[in-house]
């Protein structure tokens, strides 16, 4: 995963009690978090990497 990629993911919510399917465009990545525009919420969100259960790249930036 890298800046600009569009990813579809299955995500465990911050409270750890619900699953959510999201499509995001990555803005920044570090060791713990991904900052991304979330198309579901229509806003920039922060995602914890350890809460991502599955992901697939929809569009990779070259």
Structural write-up:
- This is WYL domain-containing protein.
- The chain has 62 residues and is mainly beta.
- It has one domain.
- It is built from no helices and 5 strands.
- It has strands at residues 6-12, 19-29, 33-38, 43-48, 52-59.
- A 5-stranded antiparallel sheet has the order 4-3-2-1-5, with no helix packed on it.
- β1 (6-12) and β2 form a beta hairpin.
- It starts with 5 loop residues before the first strand and ends with a strand.
- The mean pLDDT is 93.
- Taken from the alpha-carbon principal axes, the silhouette is globular
Number of strands: 5
Radius of gyration: 11 Å
Cross-sheet strand order for the largest sheet: 4-3-2-1-5
- Average pLDDT for all residues: 93
Helix content: under 10%
Count up the domains.
1
By helix and strand content, what is the structural category?
mainly beta
Protein name: WYL domain-containing protein
Organism: Sporolactobacillus laevolacticus DSM 442
């Amino acid at each position: 995963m890298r800046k600009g990629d569009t990813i579809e993911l299955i995500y465990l919510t911050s409270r750890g009690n619900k699953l959510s399917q999201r499509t995001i465009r990555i803005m920044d990545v570090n060791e713990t978090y991904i900052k991304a525009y979330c198309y579901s919420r229509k806003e920039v969100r922060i995602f914890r990497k350890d809460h991502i259960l599955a992901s697939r790249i929809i569009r990779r930036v070259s």
